[in-house]
Amino acid sequence: MDNNKDAVLMDKIVSLAKRRGFIFQSSEIYGGINGFWDYGPYGVRMKRAIEQLWWREMVETRDNVEGLDSTIICHPQVWKASGHLDQFSDLMCDCRDCKARHRVDMMEDPKICSNCGGGNLTEPREFNLMMKTFVGPVFDDEHTAYLRAETCQPIFVDFHNVRVASRQKLPFGIAQIGKAFRNEVNPRNFIFRSREFTQMEMEFFCDEAEGMKWFEYWKEQRIRYYREKLGFGDDFMRVYEHEKLAHYARAAIDLEVRFPFGWGELEGIHHRGTWDMSRHQEFSGKEQHYIDHDGQRKIMPTVIETSVGLDRTFLALLGKAYAEEPVENEEIRTVLRFPAVIAPVQLGVLPLSKKLSGQAGELYHKLNRYFRCEFDETGSIGKRYRRQDEIGTPFCLTFDFDSLEDNAVTIRDRDSMRQDRVPVAELRDYLESRIDG
Ligand code: GAP
Questions:
Q1: Of 88, 97, 293, 413, which one's alpha carbon is 20 to 30 angstroms from that of 21?
Q2: Which tens digits make up the pLDDT trace of 239-269?
């Protein structure tokens, strides 16, 4: 795709996301705040659905992965041990003329300002990405704390608490979904790079000798998940193998997808060695080894990590789903072809006439217990179909006057626009077999 086409697509997605209540700029009436986004009524439905899908896949269907929900603020030493306070920084420089700020690694030419074209740049300097705050009534160095920059550090710190409480033995994993904060120099590409975002991370603890085996296992599992649950095929997702690794890492890959602006990182899968647990032992002074009673050995756990941004998953899904296509009367319909499992509304319930709202409403309340439903009785059926297409609803149910006689309804499929007559008694099975991811 060329740059111009990408930019047009991105603009369309940002504007649809706002208009239909998926994503708004945070604090918009005050002019917004760069790098922060709010999820509206459909956005939050879909966000929750993505979380649930991931949680089910990574925690609930596995006996050897436990969940955790830790605080956003931890003891500041956690970030000293993790290396974030000393090393988590970007090199940046400012343009003295137009005041634009640039990340040096992203500049095409480190001598020229890409904003104004001038050459009056400051020397590059380190810029730490940790967000600072204060805990308690005194605002001084002693009371400084940080918002977590990744959700995995509290997992390492809680490893033995979780292990003892859950009676897990190596190998096993701990998963967490939660907010992370980074003072990104250049938040950009909509929700791709923000300053506040949600991560879904799983840290798998094992014996060092088995590290590469588990790394390969999780790589395969995560690729299969995207293929089977979200329909990310080879034309949409690719594996990027890191040649230059973080100093502690043994192996690392990124799963990249085609975002509306081009290819970008969605998820990282990392073999982190024993670095995390050793560092927390060193900085806390608390023993972090695992005692293998069967083998009578002391093991410093090796960590395999899968780490994905929820917001990036959202953007990938929006970009992949967006389509404009001609329909009858040379109209263009805008449609989001979301997989049914994460669609904000899975079933639109539409009475053909307001006279049928009572009966259709009853059916809506019944079905809403099993699927994410929306009731809409306003406007022509055609208009209501278009509205549901635009928010990605895979199925619409029309309750008409015949329904009163034959106890059946019409189900319209978003993508094929095919309509099936389905007996009310069979609706739940009919929908379940098509919606389950
Ligand atoms: N614990 C490892 C870790 O945090 P990372 O590559 O820095 O690794 C993991 O981040 C994932 O978090 C990325 O693949 C991306 O999906 C998401 N992510 C990172 N920075 C982000 C940002 N500024 N905005 C949105 N998502 C981000």
A1: 413
A2: 999 989 988 899 999 999 999 999 999 999 9
Q: Classify residue 40: in a domain, yes or no.
A: yes
How far does residue 67's CA lie from ligand 1's centre (Å)?
20
433 close to 414: Cβ distance less than 8 angstroms: no
Domain count, the chain: 3
Q: Are 151 and 197 in contact (CB under 8 A)?
A: no
Looking at the fold, whether 171 and 35 belong to one and the same domain comes out as yes
pLDDT of 28 > 80? The answer is yes
pTM of the model: 0.94
Note down the domain range covering 233.
Answer: 3-78+130-318
pLDDT of residue 2: 65
Closest ligand 1 atom to residue 151 Cα is 1
For residue 8, the surrounding DSSP H or E stretch is helix 3-19
Kindly report the protein residue whose alpha carbon is nearest to atom 16 of ligand 1: 309
Is the shortest distance between the CB of 400 and ligand 1 below 6 Å?
A: no
| Same-domain status, 161 and 51 | yes
Q: Is the dihedral of CA 126, 127, 128, 129 positive or negative?
A: negative
Whether 292 and 391 map to the same domain: the answer is no
Residue 312 has pLDDT above 60, yes or no: yes
6 lines ligand 1 (CB under 6 A): no
Ligand 1 near 154 CB (within 6 A)? no
Average of pLDDT values for 192-208?
Answer: 98
Among candidate residues 99, 128, 157, the one where a domain is terminated: 128
CA 34 to CA 16: how far, in whole Å? 19
The answer to whether the CB of 193 is under 6 A from ligand 1 is yes
Q: Answer whether 268's CB lies under 8 Å from 256's CB.
A: no
How far away, in angstroms, is 384 Cα from ligand 1 center?
38
